[in-house]
Write a structure and sequence with these properties.
It is a single chain. By secondary structure, the protein is α+β, with helices and mostly antiparallel strands. The chain has six helices and eight strands, in the order ααββββαββααββα. It has helices at 3-7, 23-30, 69-76, 110-119, 122-134, 164-167, and strands at 35-40, 46-51, 54-55, 60-65, 79-85, 93-105, 139-144, 148-152. The longest helix has 13 residues, at 122-134. The relative contact order is 0.20.
Length: 170
């Protein structure tokens, strides 16, 4: 890593894991909006599925209930792509790639509970989780440690094919 890149994560090239330290990446990893998980389904066709997510500092964790079709597909072909983005007039986009590791959970995945409690009133969250536990719900934890990271803020970082006029200073 160059000294400029070491001091300024925005100077890192797309794909560098160090981009996780940018303000845009940190903002998007903490958002309550869903991540979009792209994977290859059992029939070989592509799928994209919105999922709540929790960032541990090294791993993006999503969870799904037992019986979800994506589990077998992810175990068969673990390579995934993920995007988390905003819908503002100047969008921010975080792009991740890595392999999904699916773990069976006896009950509720801890990260799922953290994510759901983040935006639910406590009494509502308690009732929701009490109901899931009473029903004997079980889950799969889907963890992805990013091996490739891209950040777009459409102010200083643009898609590679963006016209030169987009990145010209005003």
């Amino acid at each position: 890593m160059t000294s400029a890149a070491h001091n300024d994560p925005n100077a890192l090239p797309q794909g560098d894991i160090g981009l996780l330290e940018t303000d845009v990446a940190r903002e998007l990893l903490s958002l309550a909006s869903p991540a979009r998980l792209a994977y290859v389904a059992a029939d070989g066709s592509p799928r994209v599925f919105p999922m709540n997510h929790w960032w541990t500092g090294t791993e993006l964790v999503m969870a799904t209930f037992t019986g979800a079709a994506k589990v077998a597909a992810l175990r068969r072909r673990p390579a995934v792509a993920i995007t988390i983005d905003t819908v503002s007039a100047t969008p921010h986009v975080l792009l991740l790639r890595g392999d999904a590791v699916v773990t069976d959970v006896d009950g509720i995945a801890p990260e799922y509970e953290l994510v759901m409690r983040r935006d639910m009133p406590p009494a509502q969250a308690d009732a929701y989780f009490d109901g899931l536990r009473a029903d004997g719900a079980t889950m799969h934890r889907i963890g992805v440690i990013p091996t490739w990271v891209g950040v777009l803020d459409f102010e200083t970082r643009f898609p590679g094919a963006a016209p030169a006029a987009m990145s010209a200073p005003s």
